[in-house]
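Field log, afternoon session.

UNIT: design team B
ACTIVITY: writing a sequence onto a fixed backbone
BACKBONE:
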């Protein structure tokens, strides 16, 4: 149960549900000495390659929905955002220098993912739309069976990307979820990857060993020995010594959208979230030990583009907040949430596509919460209390630049799934008792709430919602603490700032 303790006036013990209950927190004066310092852009974006121009635009067109939603995050968090451009459609690129548009994907009948993506020089116009301090990771094609064609494609694209972005280019990523059925094994993969990376490095920087590449990009590993494709096995077999690796990354999802039993309460279960993040901890620790940051380079709720009624609801936003904040207690340095046009787990869909309308979806609100929690950066996190359906985090400042860390905020998340069709008078509440050592009377409480976990509407953070054009509506109305405790209803989260 963590450092705190709880009681329930009425408990359903087998389900871990409280109708009315309380959590008392034992808050340490400082975080553990080994806690990493979190960047304010810790929750980042990953955009499926074919969707890149939908989420950005070109030199003559930009979608105000995209612009407003991105600017909201920047305004609240006070920092830049990061975008990784990649995914499986990034393995389908074909260069056409005469293409009169930036990108031309070809879709099989009935599919929401292309089987061929033609790209040309006008693709670079997409980088002019998001704020000019945006950092980019650009994914490039990688496929053993068509090596010569793909090297030609990459060597045409990479210099253009660098010339366009300059310092905004964080890294290149070669390939997406490679390794399945690769008969040459890890040594063959490493040899091929190094050939690709050195060719790109030479074409862009005129040297073969520029430290500007993400490595890995495999689907979540199932083992950690030399027979598995993981960032550790490829680093140990030659990539670490190459001088090319800037960041190690793995792709992680909570499960598959094709699994009928996966529902909102599966996502809204801290034990499931903790288990998924903890599975990455050995790789993150390994990468950290050799001086290479470790990221979840592509992640979200359920693979297969998400599940309707689960990935696109408010419940998914609460899951995402828990997922991000728990990851912040490990050596994972950033999470890139994958987005695609018309996909269910996206924070928003920029245009109508595949039968789904354009507009904001539930997980977008997780960015507003985490942006506020991470504002200013250099934060450290501790789990103060956790069980299956309730978790609280301590957020500390100043510990990264001095030995005088102090608590700045507490984030508390009630993960009990509440159905909006139920009588709101029966909605369970857990009260968080604030320790007397903290100045509760001057604290501000910002609430992330909605009528229920299953809704896609009526979602607010700090009493503010989001209009159809992506602008914030309403006036921020932070709450005060009058009796030393804060109520957190089922399917709600609060950020308490002291």
């Amino acid at each position: 149960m963590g450092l705190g303790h709880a009681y329930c006036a009425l408990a359903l013990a087998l389900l871990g549900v409280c109708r009315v209950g309380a959590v008392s927190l034992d808050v340490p004066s400082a975080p553990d000495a080994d806690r990493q310092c979190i960047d304010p852009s810790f929750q980042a974006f990953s955009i499926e390659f074919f969707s890149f121009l939908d989420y950005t635009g070109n030199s003559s067109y930009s979608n105000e929905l995209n612009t407003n939603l991105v600017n909201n995050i920047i305004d609240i968090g006070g920092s830049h955002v990061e975008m990784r451009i990649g995914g499986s459609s990034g393995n389908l690129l074909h260069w056409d220098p005469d293409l009169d548009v930036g990108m031309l994907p070809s879709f099989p009948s009935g599919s929401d993912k292309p089987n061929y993506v033609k790209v040309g020089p006008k693709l670079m116009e997409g980088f002019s739309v998001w704020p000019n301090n945006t950092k980019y990771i650009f994914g490039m094609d990688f496929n053993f069976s068509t090596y010569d064609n793909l090297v030609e494609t990459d060597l045409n694209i990479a210099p253009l990307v660098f010339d366009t972005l300059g310092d905004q280019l964080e890294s290149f990523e070669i390939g997406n979820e490679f390794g399945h059925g690769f008969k040459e094994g890890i040594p063959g993969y490493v040899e091929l990857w190094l050939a690709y990376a050195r060719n790109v490095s030479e074409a862009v920087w005129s040297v073969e060993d520029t430290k500007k590449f993400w490595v890995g990009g495999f689907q979540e590993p199932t083992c950690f020995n030399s027979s598995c494709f993981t960032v550790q096995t490829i680093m140990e077999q030659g990539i670490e010594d190459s001088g090319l690796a800037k960041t190690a990354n793995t792709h992680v999802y909570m499960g598959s959208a094709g699994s009928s039993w996966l529902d909102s309460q599966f996502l809204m279960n801290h034990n499931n979230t903790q288990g998924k993040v903890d599975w990455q901890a050995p790789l993150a620790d390994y990468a950290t030990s050799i001086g290479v940051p470790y990221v979840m380079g592509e992640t979200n709720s359920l693979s297969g583009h998400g599940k309707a009624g689960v990935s696109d609801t408010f419940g998914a936003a609460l899951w995402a907040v828990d997922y991000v904040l728990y990851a912040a207690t490990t050596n994972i340095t950033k999470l890139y949430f994958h987005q695609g046009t018309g996909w269910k787990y996206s924070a928003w869909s920029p245009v109508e596509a595949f039968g789904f309308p354009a507009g904001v979806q539930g997980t977008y609100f997780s960015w507003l919460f985490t942006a506020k929690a991470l504002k200013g950066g250099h934060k450290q996190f501790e789990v103060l209390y956790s069980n299956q359906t309730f978790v609280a985090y301590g957020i500390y400042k100043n510990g990264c630049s001095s030995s005088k860390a102090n608590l700045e905020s507490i984030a508390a998340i009630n993960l009990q799934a509440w159905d909006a069709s139920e009588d709101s008078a029966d909605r369970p509440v857990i009260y968080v008792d604030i320790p007397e050592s903290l100045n509760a009377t001057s604290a501000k409480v910002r609430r992330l709430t909605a009528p229920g976990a299953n809704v896609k509407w009526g979602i607010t953070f700090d009493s503010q919602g989001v209009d159809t054009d992506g602008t914030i509506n309403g006036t921020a109305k932070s709450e005060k603490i009058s009796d030393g405790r804060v109520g957190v209803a089922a399917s709600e989260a609060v950020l308490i700032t002291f």
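LOG NOTE: The chain has nine helices and 29 strands.
NEXT ACTIVITY: expression trials, pending approval
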